[in-house]
Structures are given as structure tokens and as C-alpha cells.
Please model this.
Amino acid sequence: SSGKSESKAKSQPKKTQSKPKSKPKAGGLFGAKRPKKTYEGEPGGKADWFLEEALDTVYDPHGTGKSVKGATILARSSEGNVRVRDVVRAYALQGRDGVLELAWTNPITEYLIEAFDAC
Model:
């Protein structure tokens, strides 16, 4: 009967082998981890570089995972829309004072400026 018990033990699948672990998802409790980028170019070209290359470094407070684009509208009014590219270019030229008052109604404006300064 010892032969039977050995064959039974072999036929059972091994439980020590687990499925290959999937990569941990980026992010966590407070939004996704964002990549770090540094601008190394002409002094006047940082705004355009930031809009093309580094918008993925902007903090996403709600962890939506939606990427911010240059054409993303931050605020609307009867006088016109305030877009991400307007805020970045105005800030690059004139600092905080150059950014339209309307843009400050959206919290992403603050995160845009933080990300811009970090590059």
C-alpha cells in the first residue's frame, strides 16, 4: 500500500508554486508616482519643452491617471478659456503675476507651476 500513497502525493499539484507576481501598480494612496525630468536647453525654451516633454510630471492629486495635455482647459469664462499651455507660457515669462486670475480657480494650476519649477 506504500506505493499507492506515493503516487497520490505526486498527482496533487504543488501548492508552493504561485503564479508569477504581477508588477505592483504605479501609484498608491496619494496618486501616481511621477517621473523626474530636468530641462537642459536654451533659457527661453523651457516652456515649450515642458509642454512637449514634461507634462507627465504634473502631480495628479486624485490619482485619475489622466495625463494633462497642453490643450487641457483649466478654466472657462465668457472672455475665453484658460488652457494649460497659457498658464505655462505666462508663468515662464512673468512668473505668478503673469498667470490669469481665472486660472487659479483650478488646483491643477498650482501643480503645473510646482512641476515646472522642479524641472
Remarks:
- DSSP finds four helices and two strands in the chain.
- Residues 84-94 form the longest helix (11 residues).
- The CA atoms of residues 16 and 98 lie 62 Å apart.
- Residues 43-119 form one domain.
